């Protein structure tokens, strides 16, 4: 099969689905995760997380052809063996039940409507059975026999199966329509170079926002922080005390016309330097909260380990792929606990949902399919355009035609001629 690695925006266009994480409901071109649920653990753990004993599962089914065939077979088997799954509108059926499945709910043991509710007395058991378990079990046509614990477990199993059915149907509906796709999902390999760059920009923005918002209402202190951070970066991260950098921290205005941190666009070389210096940045600027500072350090250390693994030149073995998947889970859980939904992006979702591991298992290497060479050529063309052309001018000759493309095309022709070795044949 021919690979087709591209950046994220190009993937959306080539596959005919997906979009910005905070813009489109079904934002991921690989799965049916919704924007509002991108930082929420699944209600039912996948087989991999169950085997590893993980309490939280953020994985999503990747909608490639083989997976869709398997999901369709699972769906047929589920509806055949469980009568309550034969209703067409299972999601509507879940809304009609008194009980619900939500493992990530705060203090779920105290909410009688949560299936994880733990009654403390016999009276609470009786009330819970009469108000929640009995109506739902009867509605689904399930047995009412057994103890309170057995009835609750029976209803839990039903809720998990119904939730899984909704997940499968949504995945098949969202990712199964490939009529407008220009390539197969398996070919759409994400670029780890873009992933590292975009995620690093997000990390920096979230870090700046945390410190900036700590001084909310204190404009003078916010200005001092921005100035100190910019100076430190130019003297110690992107520059030296004897060769100061010229990086500028970008700010903007929010919907309330208040000053806030903007996206910090930068090349990948700068991102790597920020990642290397993150411990020092946390020590200096998160001095007011030791717990959050340690959390940031752990998250960024986990990220650096993950990127070091992703940049491996050789093909991965099955054991190495499993280790990569575990490292993805470790980082993602740390990051979600640190920033929640606000810190979510398309690339971060692909790491936590298991999509990066899926592509690594399919192609055995991600570094080989990164866009490093193309990005290097873009950088070279930019330098040629700005430093060795008139940028569309005609050298003061009003009779000649303006062109921004012609000097670039002539340079590319000369370069190709040189690389081909034909210049050696010239007398």
Please characterize this protein's 3D structure.
It is globular and about 95 Å long. By secondary structure, it is mostly helical. It contains 16 helices and two strands. Among the domains are: 8-184, no CATH class; 378-393 and 403-421, no CATH class. It has helices spanning 8-15, 47-52, 65-81, 90-96, 122-140, 148-175, 192-214, 219-237, 268-276, 278-285, 290-310, 318-339, 346-352, 355-363, 372-388, 405-420; strands at residues 251-253, 259-261. The protein has a two-stranded antiparallel sheet. It is 55% helix and 1% strand.
Keywords summarizing the entry:
about 425 residues, mainly alpha, globular
Give a short synopsis of this structure.
With 427 residues, this protein is mainly alpha-helical. It is 55% helix and 1% strand. Among the domains are: 8-184, no CATH class; 378-393 and 403-421, no CATH class.
Number of helices: 16
Main beta sheet, described?
2 strands, antiparallel
Question: How much of the sequence is in beta strands?
Answer: under 5%
Rg (CA only): 27 Å
Helix and strand content put the structural class at: mainly alpha
Give the N-terminus to C-terminus distance in angstroms: 45 Å
Whole-number mean pLDDT: 90
Shape: globular
As a percent range, the share of helical residues equals: 55-70%
| Count of DSSP strands | 2
